[in-house]
Amino acid sequence: MNWKTDRYFILVLVCSCAGLGLGATSVMAETVLCNQGATTACLTTPSSDRVAGGLSMGLMAGMGAGLTTGWQAFRNRKD
Predict the structure, then answer these.
(1) pLDDT at 1 (0 to 100)
(2) Model pTM?
(3) φ/ψ (deg, to 5) at 23
């Protein structure tokens, strides 16, 4: 792989990590809200399922953003 190909991979990796961080932040905010007032969703869903769902959703969103941005940059490049 050369540098031009590697930078697209790095872009997807960075966006995926950012999405993972945002997913973790949203899960922690939801956990605080569940601790303050117990709703039926908080009582019936285990916390590990909520954490795994939030992290995977953030990862997929970040990866999608990175792939889309990389694809647009790849299509619009001027060699």
Answers:
(1) 62
(2) 0.77
(3) -65, -40
